[in-house]
Predict the 3D structure of the following.
Amino acid sequence: MCTKKLKSMENTPYYFYDLDVLDATLEAIKSNIMGESFYVHYAIKANNNMEILKRIAKNNFGADCVSGWEIETAIEAGFDPQSIVFAGVGKTDEEIIIALTHKIGMINCESLEEIHVINQLATQLNVCPKIALRLNPNVNALTHEKISTGLAENKFGLTVLEFKALLNDLSELNSIDITGLHFHIGSQITTMDVFANLCERILEIIPEFEQKIGPLTSLNVGGGLGIDYDQPDLNAIPDFQGYFNTFKKGLTSLVNIPVHFELGRSIVAQCGSLRTKVLYVKRSENKNFAVMDAGMTELMRPALYGSVHKIEKLNADPVDVAQFYDVVGPICESSDCFGKDIRLPELHRGDIVTIRSCGAYAESMSLRYNGREAIGNNLKPKVSTSLRMLKYA
Ligand code: LLP
């Protein structure tokens, strides 16, 4: 039997980052916030590749972290600890201690119990961290239900009940400084009206905060600006102008309060793509499958959210005839599919395919499932194993 050799010797799959696009994106943000009291903290969860982090840190952005590991990695990459904000519904004591010992800028708190734990640990360490209350504004982000966070039904933020209870506990909380408010209503938001609605809610909430807790010295509006997955070349730079203008307009009545943003996807998504090789082309009566060497382990978004990324054949030959393919990965899950009925120039074993807009939530969400080799910055598994054998007499 004749076995066709792979046409390309390229060592796929790999994440390809175009640093010119990243630099242009960072410049676009900087030019849109110039002259304002606006501070952008890069949400590290979107992509924790060290080279990307260092580049963003060098441009004087802050960092938004959601774990102790992210805080330590941000500091290693050159982010100023004072520019780090720390969010998350389930911070462990160890992670809180990391935040406290590094004296980071702000801890965004999401439950009353968490606030008490931070206060207790801060007392032990003799520090007085700045705290922001993450409130759930009940604003509809008009995005995919799995990446919507600002509705009453979502697990994020202090509930109204807990906010009221906090007011009774204030006198006991002597080792923390509650000075900020934090919001984040969801991700991949492309309708600016959603952010305008958020501003309206924020302006309603601030007087209550100031009346019951004290002066507000920091407002964090979260992240969430979406990108164009359909046309990554035409719209490589997200609509930062529309986004920041919405906040300039919506928060004009706020004077002397710095506004913090936690942007992730909009900073890094368009600079990255996933390059993968065709292992096999399989034909049935009514379908062609292109089986790739990357799968949901390298890009989980389509399997998890049904998200659509633009798929292209790299170095396509103009004489290639277009065909329709289900572009699938090698993982033993039917959901391991990057796209169905995708029109592409004819594919052959060894061709390289590019999956676009993979700079955000691809590498950082990669997995080792199916014994996959780690590519890129893949983290070592953090969770240890405990084995037990029960012997019955
Ligand atoms: N701040 C907080 C508190 C967040 O939870 C997030 C994202 C961000 C900021 C950054 O949001 P961005 O600007 O990137 O939209 N894995 C999903 C996205 C999950 C977003 C989680 N939180 C995806 O692949 O679409």
